[in-house]
Request: fold
Amino acid sequence: MSDDPYQALGVSSSASQDEIKKAYRKLAKSLHPDLHPDDPSKEAEFQAISAAYDLLGDAEKRRRFDAGEIDASGQEKPEYQYYRHYAEQDAGRRYDPGMGSGGFDDASDLFSELFGRRARGSGGAEFGQEFHARGPDLNYHLEVDFLDAANGAKRSVTMPDGKGIEISIPPGVRDGQTLRLRGKGGAGFGEGPAGDALIAISVRSHPLFQRDGTDIELDLPITIDEAVLGAKVDVPTIAGTVAMTVPKGVSSGRRMRLKGKGIKPPKGDPGDQYVRIKIVLPDTVGVDLEKLAEEWREKSDFNPRKGLGGVT
Amino acid sequence: MRLDERMVVAKVDRLTLRELRLWVRQGWVRPARGDVGPVFDEIDLARIRLLCDLRKDMSLSLETLPTVLSLIDRLHEARRDLRWLTEALEEQSEDVRRSVVSTMRRRRDPNGDI
Reply:
């Protein structure tokens, strides 16, 4: 079964109870096993949407699912993972004692080579009598706009001591990526160097653009005459507006590529922008357009649903 | 997961905002700093629950807590080191791995049958 009951029903997570009911009924009608006795895959799909509706159709169950208290099959989730689960992962380094690893004076060279916390950048560790250790890493969290993440930007972050530091966000930084600023963390102990500042980036979404690696995707609404006759239209890209030629006779869903108009990462090839054509009719269809369509219908024998088999 | 102070307090029933702030000030919990205040993730949340267990269920005092916490942190650091060492060993040739394993067994259990 799908992990996401919203996806199973094809509704957004903000859909109202009513919308969920409607979506379920619609799907149930088309997938009901008794209407497809010869197609076992429909039965599986039907079970999946029924399970999704069992969960989401009940406002209380839905609330508990949204809150993460139960999983998609309605089972109670274990309340939480124990600390040790995270502490032994790399994430646990945040809570390392940080005071170097003392007590290795009598240990073998190999031991200190393996487990000694080397003072980074000072050309080898000194394990003498004095206490030197690298300062602790400090963690920050920075939310950046979609376009800043795509194009790169400068942002400043206030450190605990009140000093601001400027951060260069490289073009193409990903959501969840961590930037490391060497030596911008806590001060070292003794002659140890300062730790690093670790900046976890989260990228806000954009109303128009979507992102897939270094490629950008955009839905481009065009009018029916532009689709029929072709046109030159302005298209927003992450680096400003460009002119694009819509070819004659283009259909909705057609993907067109604007080469090199995606994200330009510091290393590697620039990405492309993909423009998905979407033919949009005016809010009210006028008499002229209706007349045109009627005339065309009389003469045309075009059937775009021919490939769909017996469905039409 | 990115939670602010209030969301953490809402998620962990036993925790008050006052306690959370104290623990952060003491450095027992080390959230990332965000534009509008601290940002907590999974490991911070799990650690806060551990701190609640230690403080509340086991009634550790504020004086003993740092000692216990530092032992726990050292233990986890050591276990992570061991995991990495094991991973490094796994990349070695069969001969090296076998010889390390047999030496290790001899030391841990000198009278056992190998």
